[in-house]
Amino acid sequence: MARPRAEDYDDKRKAILKTSAELFAEHGFDRASMNQIALGCGVSKALLYHYYANKDALLFDIIRDHLDELIAAVEEGATPEMTGEEMLHGYVLALLDAYRDANAEHKIQINEMKRLPAEQQEELKARERRLVQLFAGALSHAVPQLAEPGSTLLKPVTMSLFGMVNWHYLWFREGGAVSRADYARIATRLILDGARSLAA
To answer: Which InterPro entries does this one have (predicted)?
Structure first.
């Protein structure tokens, strides 16, 4: 008979994932060891292995949980009755806010996913595609010409917006001159003005 899970199982799992993400981001996936992770979490290696058999399992769960949190945040960032512009701004703001305190997870998603088996990569890429679909839908709602038959603009415009948002962690500083809300407005305005100009 399987032993029942402790009441704090999920909390401990999330704490292990957070510490692992920070260590992978700081030292690199190859150099960070299960021993370092156990020490960082303040748990025994035996307990760590109770949760995760190896680093690959940790890596997959870090990226999967991160993407699930991004999708949930973005889906809550807008409502169907919003205009396309309002929806896009809501999505951008929600994504930027979801990235708060998630720089390590974001860095790992970008740099380390390729280390996973193809089947797991595909599962994670399906989640990435869901995010792209949400933003592409808002963009085509705001600028319908992007999605007209024969137009090739929707994908490059959508991916350009992701480039603006996904790499903000390289320069953005919490408490600096530009807030997340400020940058959400900037990114939304830049992409919409540019898209409307291209589609004209």
So the answer is: Homeodomain-like_sf, HTH-type_TetR-like_transc_reg, HTH_TetR, KstR2_TetR_C, Tet_transcr_reg_TetR-rel_C_sf
Helical ranges in 55-117 per DSSP H: 55-75, 84-98, 103-112
Instruction: Report which of 60, 35, 59, 61 is spatially closest to residue 48, judged by C-alpha positions.
Output: 35
Instruction: Identify the structural domains of the chain with CATH numbers, from first to last.
Output: 54-199 (1.10.357.10)
Q: What's the pLDDT tens digit per position in 137-150?
A: 999 999 999 999 99
Compute the chain's Rg from CA coordinates: 19
Distance from C-alpha of 31 to C-alpha of 21, rounded to nearest angstrom: 13
Q: DSSP 3-state helix, strand, coil percentages of the chain (rounded to 5)?
A: 75, 0, 25
66-112 pLDDT, tens per residue? 999 999 999 999 999 999 999 999 999 999 999 999 999 999 999 99
Mean per-residue pLDDT for 144-172?
95
